[in-house]
Amino acid sequence: MYFTDGDACVVIASNAGEPRHPAWWLNLRGDATATVQRGRAVTAMRAREAHGEERARLWTKVAARG
Q1: How far apart (Å, rounded) are the C-alpha atoms in residues 34 and 37?
Q2: DSSP-derived 3-state class of residue 37
Q3: Secondary structure element (H or E) that encloses residue 59, with its range
Q4: d(CA 49, CA 29)
Q5: What's the predicted TM-score (pTM) here?
Q6: Nearest to 50 by CA among 60, 37, 59
Q7: Can you tell me whether residue 53 is helix, strand or coil?
Q8: Domains in the chain: how many in total?
Q9: N or C: which end of the chain has fewer CB within 10 A?
Q10: What are the tens digits of pLDDT across the range 18-47?
């Protein structure tokens, strides 16, 4: 699941409720360089984990999507 937040692409690394992180998230934590493709558009990005108020705000958006 992903959604946009301004210029950011927000990706949820939930691993479908499993008790371990998805492998792709662990890879991004090791090397935050990423390429995102939406349709034909390919964009280079740098991944980072949201914390604090930002994380709470984004989680509210995730929950609203149901």
Answers
A1: 10
A2: strand
A3: helix 52-65
A4: 8
A5: 0.79
A6: 59
A7: helix
A8: 1
A9: C
A10: 999 999 999 999 999 999 998 999 999 999
Pairing of strands 41-46, 2-5: unpaired
- Name the residue type at position 34: A
Residue partners of 5: CB distance under 8 A and separation at least 6: 58, 61
Residue type for 3, please?
F
Mean model confidence pLDDT for the chain: 93
CA 28 to chain centre: 10
Distance CA 19, CA 34 (A): 24
Q: What whole-number distance in Å separates Cα of residue 66 and Cα of residue 60?
A: 10
Q: Give the structural domain span for 18.
A: 2-65
